[in-house]
Amino acid sequence: MQCLMEENNMEEVDKQQQSKDSVYFRDGKRRIDFVLSYVEDKDDRKQERRKLYEANMQKAGLELELEDKSESEDGKTFFLKIHAPWEVLATYADVLKIKVPFKVNDIPENREIPVGWLFTPLRLPDHVMHPDPDYFTSSFDSNKHDFFLIEDKETFFPNSTRNRIVYYILSRCPYNKEDRLNKDKRGIKRLLNNGTYTSAFPLHDCRYWVKSRDPNCESERYSLYRYWARFFRFYKEQPLNLVRKYYGEKIGIYFAWLGFYTEMLFYAAVVGLICFIYGVATYDNTVWTKEICDKDIGGEIVMCPLCDKKCGFWKLNSTCNSTWQSHLFDNTATVFFAIFMGIWVTLFLEFWKRRQARLGYEWDLVDFEEEQQRLQLRPEYETKCTSRRLNRVTQEMEPYFPVTSKCARLCLSGATVLFWISLIIASIIGVIAYRLAVFAALASVMKDSPTNKLELVGSLITPQLATSVTASCINFVIIMLLNFLYERVAIWITDMEVPKTHVEYENKLTVKMFLFQFVNYYSSCFYVAFFKGKFVGYPGKYTYMFHISNLRNEECDPGGCLIELTTQLVIVMTGKQVWGNIQEALLPWLKNWWSSRNARSHPESLYSRWEQDYDLQNFSQFGLFYEYLEMVIQFGFITLFVASFPLAPLLALMNNILEVRVDAWKLTTQFRRPVAAKAHSIGAWDEILNLIAVFSVVTNAFIVAFTSDMIPRLVYFYAYHPGTELTMQGYVNNSLSVFKISQISTESTPDPGENPAWFNSSVITTCRYRDYRYPPGHEHEYSHTMQFWHILAAKMAFIIIMEHVVFVVKFFVAWLIPDVPSDVQARVKRERYLVQEYLHNYEVDKLKKQLNQKGEEGQCICPEIAATVKHEVLSECLT
User: Fold this and answer.
1) Does residue 350 sit in the same domain as residue 398?
2) Subcellular location, in the record's words (predicted)?
């Protein structure tokens, strides 16, 4: 008898330990679809809310099981496990029009690649790439169970679909009594905000580093980690079907887009690298660079001071190094690469549309967008809209927001966005003022010449470079600070607008955030590219910022403004990517390490599946939004300003190879399992990418024309070269104007001791500056020469020609490539036809059975029923 009792106790312990590591209720049969956690306190209101909410959940058909705090690792937290039985799943699958299989797909695949064996090293096992067979699907109908391929009701709906249905119920379940008609008291989101529950999440199916002990569990998380989330798998294809099955279509679409974007970056990176290599190869063959570095040419040209008082005269050959560096990016290949990127971005967007259409068919998203708009209203919208009106389409009463209230909220929202954009512009002006003030100070410290060199960490720098680098770093810090503050403001004003659907909410937030980020990240680059050095004036008549005497508008680096734009681009782009990866990977890991520090000392059997997930970071509803935003900002950097830095696509490619695996790793190992959600496309980001693509053609044309020295060189080469042969000799001297030193105003004259030792005012009477103006003594003294107007006309002509050529090619390519592949169109039509045919046959067979059953029972078959049957059914019945 005692042995029997000990045996029973051992079975109970084993069962308890098994349940700790499983994703099922204590009975081992009902799967845990969702978990709520809370810490009991003395607040009676929270206890009442939980009691009412859980009672209403049970009324909705959900089954609950509570884990007492004594069973938890910290001894404080209660865990409420939720299971959705078949009846609930079937009901809400019908409500949400979830597509489920009814027939195995019998359309043959014709996607054989002739040289497919070359890609074998990139392939993943078929059970990972295609975890489920391919089916024809149709919207679930709870009255037609036998129409669908239901083998096991417990596994018919994937886990991602189950947690999506449960969250739909939780987000609409009230926590008040039936006699209290306060519709504002509903939804798990409000209960999380007011502290009634501490968290709500679906469970991962197992630990990511080992398979589940339970043979009934799929261990999909383990497969994702093994084949997808590890960095050393960077060269492998992504298991998108498994990602979609485990996390839902919305996350699957993001990784599909990110992977496709990375693939397309490879081609842009190769071409950009070739252009850079061309610049290196022609490093020693540029005539104007040799003239600048020649001591008999550049060494004899005395340049005017670059700032007032603190800057002295300097010789042109002191800019030799920066001129060589500028040539690496400012050469003939720059024009070709700018045109190429205008075409590349079109190909990328058009091919993505095709890829998206194929995924839409394979993932049953073809008709989803209309259903999303029609069915899934945000709970916040339903609770805050007190008015009702008749929907002309559904003929049902639905909540709506009065136009006056909507307009007032939109106006407040717009004013807030404009205020923050103005704040960015003010900060950029502050950075410009810093550049103007610091340049004079640095020039005074570096005494030898205005490009005076100072030994710093083993490298030679100039005042211009030091000012540009420090200003870029300060600007980057301001960018990150403003981002941190504005994110919260953007969410607040979007919540205030009360969007109707989740799609509308995300689109509104996307527009606000991108508009702010666009100005925040790109404004400094726009300043360097299109404003710096363009409004300087000339030595006798300089232009000052806000007419402040010590804030003279800064000139470009002696090597040109393009190299400064490159510096700005590299610092902001690289800094953002490095900081973003630190935030994405290191911070969640540190937080999880700290939160699970106590649990690491406990036996594995006492650390339950829900407690392990509870200790992970929560993947918020904006988690994916920030991932898109990061990549779209990067897309802007490599398209809007790529003419200044052909290596930008290569940097983006290396970052994105890491980004795919970092995002996969953190999602699989560091975050709780997100609630699955559907998405038809990448949403508003698609339109934003198209706008950036169009705008990039304009910006790159202006960069080549006004920031680069390409056009002045071409005009000189074809129109102003000396002699009869086409040559660039004499270009440097031709591009510099002459000014009489005695005419420099006292406010701009260098202070005593600022001029270098070689400068002798009695011998050197003139200095040179970058411009095309008549020399002193000419009848049009210091006014622009005819060459200036020729160059300006050439720049405008280049912009017009380049834009028209690229736009014509873009529109032709967009017209030539259909958005939906022809085989996908055929498959969609085929599936719709089969759905109608099978549904028709199903209804006919069902009616046959009813007629036969009534006939066997001797009941009269009404003519009205017989008239609804097709000819073959009627004939069979009559015989």
Assistant:
1) yes
2) Cell membrane; Membrane
Residues 167, 275, single domain; the answer is no
CA of 29: how far to CAs of 16, 149, 153, in Å?
14, 22, 12
Domain boundary among 660, 692, 711: 711
The first and second tokens of residue 116, run together, are 């497919």
C-alpha 558/C-alpha 244 separation (Å) is: 54
Query: Is 493 part of any domain?
Result: yes
Q: How confident is the model at residue 245 (pLDDT cuts 50, 70, 90)?
A: very high
Return the pLDDT at 308: 81
Beta-strand ranges (E) seen in 327-418 are 387-390, 397-400
For residue 684, what pLDDT is reported? Answer: 85
**3-state DSSP assignment of residue 855:** helix
Domain shared by 161 and 247, yes or no = no
In the chain, the N- to C-terminal Cα span, in Å, equals: 72
The structure tokens 């695996």 sit at 661
User: Whole domain around residue 162: which residue ranges?
Assistant: 22-98+140-203
**116 against 134, higher pLDDT:** 134
Which is higher by pLDDT, 439 or 90? 90
Would you state the structure tokens that stand for residue 724, as one six-digit string? 């009869």
Q: What CA–CA distance (Å, rounded) separates 728 from 332?
A: 14
Residue burial 810-835, b: 16+ Cβ < 10 Å; e: rest = beeebeeeeebbeebeebbeebeebb
State yes or no: pLDDT of 680 exceeds 50.
yes
User: Quick count: other Cβ atoms within 10 Å of Cβ 805?
Assistant: 15
The chain-wide mean pLDDT, for the chain, equals 82
CB 718 within 8 A of CB 712: no
Query: Same domain, yes or no, for 198 and 248?
Result: no
CB of 397 closer than 8 Å to CB of 389:
yes
Q: Is residue 313 part of a domain?
A: yes
Strands 736-740 and 397-400: unpaired
> Same domain, yes or no, for 191 and 327?
no
pTM for the predicted model, two decimal places: 0.86
Answer for the pair 220, 244: CB distance below 8 angstroms, yes or no: no
Going by C-beta distance under 8 Å and a sequence separation of 6 or more, which residues neighbour residue 199?
35, 36, 37, 192, 614, 618, 672
Indicate the pLDDT class of residue 800, thresholds 50, 70 and 90.
very high
Assess whether 380 and 277 both reside in one domain: yes
Q: Which residues pair with 78 in a beta bridge?
A: 38
Give me the percent of the chain exceeding a pLDDT of 90.
Answer: 25
Task: For residue 557, give the DSSP letter.
Answer: P
Mean pLDDT of the 661-690 span: 91
Residues forming a β-bridge with 617: 671
Let me know whether 592 and 678 are in one domain: yes
Residue closest to 804 by CA, chosen among 796, 791, 330: 796
Question: 134-143, 476-485, 846-855: lowest mean pLDDT where?
Answer: 846-855
786: in domain: no
Annotate 788-845 with DSSP letters as a single string.
Answer: HHHHHHHHHHHHHHHHHHHHHHHHHHHHHS-SS-HHHHHHHHHHHHHHHHHHHHHHHH
Least confident range of 27-36, 194-203, 428-437: 428-437
The answer as to whether 27 is a domain residue is yes
Tally of structural domains, the chain: 3
Please give the pLDDT value at position 605.
53
Picking from 37-51, 287-301, 464-478, 672-686, which range would have the lowest pLDDT averaged per residue?
Answer: 464-478
- 3-state DSSP: the chain helix, strand, coil percent, rounded to 5? 60, 10, 30
**Token pair 């850079």: residue:** 276
User: Which residues face 136 on adjacent strands?
Assistant: 103
What strands, in cross-sheet order, belong to the sheet with 34-39?
63-67, 77-83, 34-39, 199-201
Last residue of a domain, one of 669, 693, 711: 711
697 and 832 share one domain: no
* CB contact at 8 A, 642 and 341: yes
DSSP 552: B
Q: With both helix axes pointing from N to C terminus, report the angle between 623-640 and 561-581 in degrees, rounded to the nearest 10.
A: 160
Count of Cβ atoms closer than 10 Å to residue 591 Cβ: 14
